[in-house]
Amino acid sequence: MSLAIVTPPAFEPEDIEIAKAWLRVDHATEDALLESLLKAATRHIEGLTGRVLIDTTYELTLQCFPSRIVLPKSPVRSVGPIAYVDMAEQDQAFANYRLVNEGDGQTAIIPELGAAWPHPAPGSEVVVTFTAGMSTVSIDDLPDQLKASVLIVTADLYEQRQSGVYGSGSFARIPTGVAELIQPFRRVVV
């Protein structure tokens, strides 16, 4: 199984000017750094909550049709036809499926009642294209707690960049207040 971003978010949950005001930065010399930190903070909050903040389109590639296809990102906004290569080596799109809520915001795909998964050619892949996210057009659609969490993590990354606390791309700690702010939005993955 592999997951790739097909269409990245059109915007981040907070913009550079709001981040600069939050940090009390009044110059433009570190704008590129702040934009990078905003993206890193957003991905971190998404990882902690298990939810995609801004609509992103993904391509999930599988080696076969499992009994159910559990989508690894939430909340799911849309799913396209499932692409595969049939036994005659022809490209096909399977659309005879339904979405089921697996609980806590997780979505799975199963065949419609009375339908079955098709049989792809040996060695071919099954490709599911889907869009997940909490907001489609504006940061105003996001809950204030999540926007504040992104700013707090951004500020922490900006102020602690020499401390070595955040090593190898993983966060060793969560800044004060973030866990409480995101708690209502956390998705439990079992």
Structural overview:
With 190 residues, this protein is of the alpha+beta class. It folds into 2 domains: 10-48 and 137-185, Hypothetical protein yqbg; 56-132, no CATH class. Helix content is 25%, strand content 25%. The strands form 3 sheets. The protein has a 4-stranded antiparallel beta sheet, with no helix packed on it. Helix 2 (31-49) packs across helix 3 (144-159). The longest helix is centred in the N-terminal third of the chain and has 19 residues, at 31-49. The chain is elongated, with a radius of gyration of 20 Å. The protein starts with a strand and ends in an 8-residue tail after the last helix.
Domain unit count: 2
Identify the strand order in the major beta sheet: 1-2-9-4
| CATH class designation of the largest domain | Mainly Alpha
Number of helices: 4
Mean pLDDT: 87
**End-to-end span in angstroms?**
18 Å
Strand content: 15-25%
Q: What are the main properties of this structure?
A:
single chain, 190 residues, alpha+beta, Hypothetical protein yqbg, 2 domains, 4-stranded antiparallel beta sheet, 3-stranded antiparallel beta sheet, 4 helices, 9 strands, 25% strand
Concise description?
This protein is 25% helix and 25% strand. It is α+β, with helices and mostly antiparallel strands.
What's the topology here?
Elements: E1 2-7, H1 16-23, H2 31-49, E2 56-62, E3 69-70, E4 76-79, E5 82-85, E6 91-94, E7 97-103, E8 106-111, E9 126-132, H3 144-159, H4 178-182
Antiparallel strand pairs: 1-2, 2-9, 3-8, 4-9, 5-6, 7-8
